[in-house]
Design goal:
This protein has one domain: Rossmann fold. The longest helix has 19 residues. Helix 2 packs across helix 8, helix 3 packs parallel to helix 5 and helix 5 runs parallel beside helix 7. It contains eight helices and five strands. The radius of gyration is 16 Å and the shape is globular.
């Protein structure tokens, strides 16, 4: 059985684009991925609203920096076969960082996964970097042109990090994008599209039999 940790922000948590609510469990992309992989495998959804790669959030309490909480999660969910990292939207929109800075943050998270001192000498899991989907102008006009442009650069920046570090990469923007009205979060169809698209990537990466 393969165990996969999906580590992300509100896109992984399942925040709806039309309300401050969460999608039904069946409509979360980690759930869809798990169903596609089959019952012999387990996908752990670890998403938190406002989470960044390595930056503190000026707008929210709690540990929003992924680098601060990831080591604990690697311990509590071990042994893991794969960690899927999909972050960066909040780096750009909340912490006002560049796509380049977000890519450096993802590089740091990948290094945490690969160098963590796993208990009992367990092997480090593989890492899949996922660039979050693009965003669109929101109904209230709060999303800036700068936000849209920088998030549009994430895929290229993350692909470069993946290539340099020998990591797997997937661009979520090839299968979905932020939905109306907020233009950032995924609707149910977008979650299903992402989960289904990641299934063959994960199957190939881990050498799993197709369900």
């Amino acid at each position: 059985m393969a165990t996969i940790l999906a580590f992300g922000d509100s896109l992984t948590y399942g925040a709806r684009p039309d309300a401050l609510k969460r999608h039904a469990h069946a409509d979360l992309w980690p759930t869809v991925l798990g169903q596609a992989l089959g019952p012999a495998h387990r996908v752990i959804a670890e998403g938190m609203n406002g989470r960044t790669t390595v930056f503190a959030s000026p707008l929210a309490s709690g540990l929003r920096s992924g680098a601060e909480v990831l080591p604990t999660l690697l311990n509590s969910h071990a042994p893991l076969d794969l960690v899927i990292l999909m972050l960066g939207t909040n780096d750009v929109m909340v912490s006002e960082m560049s796509a380049r800075a977000a890519a450096r943050g993802m590089d740091r998270l990948a290094e945490i996964v690969r160098s963590h001192p796993y208990w009992g000498g367990m092997a480090a899991p593989k890492v899949l970097l996922v660039a979050p989907p693009g965003i669109r102008p929101d109904a209230l006009g709060e999303t800036t042109d700068r936000d849209i442009a920088e998030i549009g650069k994430l895929a290229r920046a993350y692909r470069r990090v993946a290539g340099l570090r020998g990591l797997a990469f997937f661009d979520a923007g090839t299968v979905t994008q932020g939905a109306d009205p907020d233009g950032v979060h995924l609707d149910a169809a977008g979650n299903h599209a992402l989960g289904a698209a990641l299934a063959p990537v994960v199957t190939g990466l881990l050498g799993l039999d197709a369900p």
